[in-house]
Design the sequence.
């Protein structure tokens, strides 16, 4: 049976601002979500089993005709999955016939707590299965910008923006010469994206100047050839966005005395951060150990490059 695959992502620039039209740099991950359909022996209902690290982290069963939830280990997740399936059927009514024939198993290469895109990769996978436009599906079920779904579909580094005519993205080469000096660290808690965006929205009302500024920072990051240039852009980005959304910079709250630059990624305060440092990795990771940050990745171990 064919297995569908979609890549996770990290948003490197223009978090929050991408919703207002700024160009954002998004990198695909080596970490993926896979979906496999298994021929069902029961046409009255279909099951859904999701695994991570060889363990079941979510399961549910649905009525094939009504899509009602028969059972679920997590009701909220089941209702979200139900909304995705219903949206697929709304985009292509013939898709419901599929539900009489298959059970589904998914496998995450990354923890669902990490904010790498368990929802966006699911959207991309379901769109591929249903044969519908993934961004159309995204905007039916989410308030987010869609950058994560676009990256999952593209499978490459992209620059993403929202324009008057809708979402736009293009694949871009991103192979920084200083990649060995970039690291990604999990802060320890996943931000619930929809709720977090609503909380931040009332603080953020950028004008065209701010929108252009963050687009320019994205371009600068793409073009930087030296680590010191990249670090300056990281710190400028962090300072300007902290002022706009009235939140403290992560360097102030989590990384005292860091020999390098740190930038929040995605939803501030819970997901991953990017660290750029001239320190040897062993010394940097000893520092992170003392602070209790045990989930960290080198650039080459996490970012997918074609």
Sequence:
């Amino acid at each position: 049976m064919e297995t569908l695959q979609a890549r996770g992502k990290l948003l490197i620039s223009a978090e929050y601002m991408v919703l207002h039209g700024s160009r954002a740099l998004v990198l695909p991950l080596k970490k993926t979500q896979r979906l496999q359909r298994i021929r069902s022996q029961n046409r009255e209902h279909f099951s859904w089993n999701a695994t991570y690290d060889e363990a079941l982290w979510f399961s549910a069963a649905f009525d094939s005709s009504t899509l009602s939830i028969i059972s679920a280990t997590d009701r909220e997740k089941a209702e979200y999955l139900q909304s995705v399936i219903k949206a697929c059927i709304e985009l292509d009514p013939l898709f419901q016939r599929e539900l009489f024939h298959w059970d589904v198993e998914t496998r995450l290469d990354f923890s669902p707590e990490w904010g790498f895109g368990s929802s966006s990769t699911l959207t991309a996978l379901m769109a591929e299965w249903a044969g519908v436009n993934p961004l159309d599906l995204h905007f039916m079920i989410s308030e987010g910008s869609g950058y994560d779904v676009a990256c999952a579909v593209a499978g490459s580094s992209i620059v993403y923006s929202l324009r008057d005519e809708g979402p736009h993205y293009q694949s871009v080469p991103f192979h920084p010469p200083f990649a060995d000096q970039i690291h990604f660290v999990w802060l320890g808690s996943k931000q619930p994206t929809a709720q977090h965006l609503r909380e931040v929205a009332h603080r953020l009302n950028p004008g065209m100047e701010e929108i252009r500024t963050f687009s320019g920072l994205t371009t600068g990051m793409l073009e930087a050839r030296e680590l010191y240039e990249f670090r300056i852009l990281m710190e400028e980005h962090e300072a300007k966005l902290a002022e706009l959304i009235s939140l403290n910079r992560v360097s102030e709250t989590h990384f005292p005395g860091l020999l390098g630059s740190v930038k929040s990624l995605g939803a501030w305060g819970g997901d991953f951060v990017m660290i750029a440092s001239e320190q040897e990795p062993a010394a940097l990771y000893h520092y992170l150990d003392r602070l209790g940050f045990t989930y960290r990745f080198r650039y080459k171990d996490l970012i997918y490059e074609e």
User: Anything to note?
Assistant: The two ends are 26 Å apart (CA to CA). The first helix runs from residue 75 to 91. The chain is about 35% helix and 25% strand. The domain at 3-171 is CATH 3.30.230.10 (Ribosomal Protein S5; domain 2).
